[in-house]
Specification:
Layout lengths: L1 E3 L3 E7 L3 H13 L3 E12 L5 H9 L27 E9 L7 E4 L4 E3 L11 E2 L29 E5 L4 E11 L10 E7 L17 H4 L26 E8 L5 H32 L6 H4 L61
Antiparallel strand pairs: 1-2, 2-11, 3-9, 4-6, 4-9, 5-8, 6-7, 10-11
Helix pairs in contact: 1-4
């Protein structure tokens, strides 16, 4: 089962374990890199909102994360503060000179300073394209505000009365939701298994009628209900995991899923590398060496030899190869290409293609 629209994707994970499925959920929530305003330089603010309040609101404006892997983390860049390799500069100029009507300032009024460069030079700007869905191949360029509302306005930033002005510069940087929620690519991630509670992992407290007070979810239709008098299986484990990923519009929902899997793959590969390096060190020094770890280079263990975890070089099938339109390699699926290989020299959130 799988369904998708502009911001949401519903899918079922199978042939996996509960810890791994939950790890994918947690990675999607907290470790998929996106772009958000991280620094605001106020040049003029005569509105009723304080500078800190405005900076907070601007940080929560969703920005397009297309080609996000082409952008460096500020901590990995060799510039002094920010440059074109690790940041996108947006400007906002709004003023109500003589109108008695309230002027509303929206996210659409933010525009990218296209003259920004590593030398600090500035030129003309480009307004957001204002695409209705913001998610297609022709979506807004990296850093432009994501406009999803029917009016094409975007998020409301502030309101200006007569004589009030707002002029500022915003520096958007790459980050993950583990650092701050403004970098979260999702608004919510639904996760459910065993909709009939056959495994009894949940204790359904009720007052009178359990059926009425605990209605089954729509996912219950995909599994057989328990039969009357059925013997409880103490060794049973969950087999299907129902996920619903609701994105914020910064990237397509299927790309969020693929990015989460790629990040988790890279983290697991880093663990394998550290264990392998430690084991080799013990062998050189004549110390004890685990027989299991001696086989991690592909001698038929779970970490190599063409198993589900990849070949001896730790390249998982389906996440390396040709690059799709959205980036990443591997065999193309109904939602695009897979992730990228996991070179150990890359940062924990390394390049993967166009995204």
């Amino acid at each position: 089962m799988a369904g998708t629209n502009q911001t949401t994707i519903n899918l079922v994970l199978s042939n996996t374990s509960l810890p791994l499925a939950n790890s994918i959920r947690r990675t999607i929530l907290a470790e998929v890199p996106t772009l958000a305003i991280d620094l605001v330089e106020i040049e003029s603010n005569t509105s009723v909102l304080a500078d800190e309040f405005l900076a907070h609101r601007l940080g929560l404006v969703p920005l397009s994360a297309k080609n996000i892997d082409d952008l460096l983390y500020t901590r990995d860049c060799d510039c002094d503060q920010y440059c074109e390799n690790c940041a996108v500069v947006l400007r906002l100029n709004a003023v109500n000179r003589s109108s008695d009507e309230i002027v509303k300032v929206y996210a659409k009024d933010l525009f990218i300073d296209s003259g920004f460069s590593a030398r600090g030079a500035y030129g003309g700007g480009r307004r957001p394209s204002g695409l209705g869905n913001g998610l297609g191949e022709d979506m807004a360029q990296r850093g432009e505000p994501v406009i999803l509302d029917p009016e094409g306005q975007g998020s409301l930033i502030c309101k200006l009365r007569r004589g009030q002005e707002l002029r500022l510069k915003c520096i958007a940087k790459k980050g993950i939701a583990k650092e701050h929620a403004k970098w979260a690519p999702t608004a919510a991630v639904g996760f459910e298994y065993d909709p009939h509670n056959k495994l009894r992992h949940a204790d359904l407290w009720y007052e009178k009628d359990k059926v009425e007070e605990w209605p089954e979810s729509k996912n219950a239709a995909w599994e057989e209900p328990p039969q009357e008098g059925e013997v409880f299986d103490y060794d049973a484990e969950p087999e299907k995991f129902y996920m619903s990923i609701e994105g914020t519009g910064v990237m397509p929902p299927d790309v969020i899923l693929h990015s989460g899997i790629r990040v988790l793959q890279q983290k697991l590969a880093s663990v394998i590398q550290e264990l392998s390096a430690s084991d080799q060190t013990n062998g050189i020094n004549g110390g004890p060496q685990s027989p299991d770890m001696m086989d991690t280079m592909g001698n038929g263990t779970a970490y190599g030899g063409g198993t589900a975890y990849g070949d001896p070089g730790y390249t998982t099938p389906g996440y390396a190869g040709a690059t799709s339109a959205w980036g990443g390699g591997g065999a193309a699926s109904a939602y695009g290409g897979g992730g990228a290989a996991t070179p150990y020299g890359a940062t924990p959130y390394g390049r993967s293609g166009q995204w």
